[in-house]
Structures are given as C-alpha cells and as structure tokens.
Amino acid sequence: MRRILVHSTAVAAGQQAARAKRLAKAAEDLDRLTAAAGGRHYKTREKIVARIGVIATKRRVTSCLRWHITTDEHGTPSLTWHFDQDVLGAETAVDGWWALITSVPAEKAGPAHVLIHYKGQGTVERRYHDFKGPLAVAPVFVQHNRRVAALIQVICLALLVFCLIERQVRRALGPDETMPGLYPDNRRVRPTGRMILYQLGELTLRIGNVTDPPTVQINRGVQLHLLDLLDTDITQTRWPQT
Against a cut of 0.85, is the pTM above it? Predict the structure, then answer.
C-alpha cells in the first residue's frame, strides 16, 4: 500500500475559517462566564467547571483551552482562561493535508495520477446511484446464487448502455455545452442518462405495412435534438428479422 499526502489550499482556508469562528464563539461564551463567575448562577467552583466543560465540548476547544479558578478571602471564585497557542499552531500546521491510500504501484501511476483518479470518484458514485435508481437492482427476488449473478450481469450491461447513451450525447453536445428543453422550466443543463431516456421514452411508433413503413412520431423538439446527438436516423425503421 502507498500513502500519498495531498495538500489543498481551499481545504486549508476552510479549516482555518472554521477554527477562527469556533474560537470566537468559545471566547464569547468564556468571557460571559468570566463575568458571571461568583455571581448568583456560578457561586461555586463546581458550577463553573461544569459550565466550562459544556462550552469546551460544544465549541470543540477542549484540546487548546486552558483555564484556572481562584477564590478570594470570601470564597468567591473567579475565572481566567486562554487558548494554548502551541496547540493551535500544531493544528494550523496540518490544515489542508490529507492522505490517499492506494495499492497501485508507483511505476504505474504517480501521485498526480492517483489524485486525478480519486477526484473522479463522483462519477463512479453517480453510477452506483443509477444502479440502484433507474435500473432498480434492488430488491432482487431470486432463489439461487447463479440467478442473482445472472441478473446482476444483465443489469450491469444495462448500466453500460445507460452510460454510453449519456456519454454520446455529452460528447456530441460539447465538453462545456448545455441544452434546454429537458426540464419544464426550460433551463439549460447538462443532459443525464436518466433525463435522456425519460424524454425519449415518450416517443411513439406508428405501425405501418408492407408499402407504408413504420415511422417514429416526434412529440417535442428536444426529442429530435437528442436523436440527432445520438446520431440516430429515425427514418431508417426496419421490420423485425425472422
């Protein structure tokens, strides 16, 4: 196994902003507690300690929060606190860093290639969504393992066709192009396999005869556009071969 360390400036900036917000809120809570220490609600050390625990847990500052409680000659408690800068510095030093674990040998893929493959996982996850959604692989009502395997193979082939249809339309459309007509509000979007099949699923076929061949009837312009992108000639209908 290889471990590849990756640094993201965007992630680092997000972590730093989140930490600053968390520390600011914790400081507000602790300042209020400091002012209230020894008052009606926080007369004892135990109550102050309990409140500090709540603040530290809620604001997630347990690791860096340092506090001290003293009492005067009348037994009235007072609170002082600060954030440990050494702990905060150590946390800041690792902002934006994360690790990728891979079994791919170094001679087959360098660190940059491994990261590129990892960044493409969203496409894979979307295919799993298609696998469980439009293709409805679950539930599977079969009784034998070989039938389960056969059904999964058929559905995987359907998923392959599903993906190829989407790929063909997107390639023909262009890498950054969108198209209208897929949604009722006519907004421009990148076509997905689900939406392509939804639109083409409403095509109708007029049955013909020997002298009058069958014809595909187009109901909406977006259907013709999708068929053009798929390089499908709807005039070349054929009778089933016997």
Answer: no
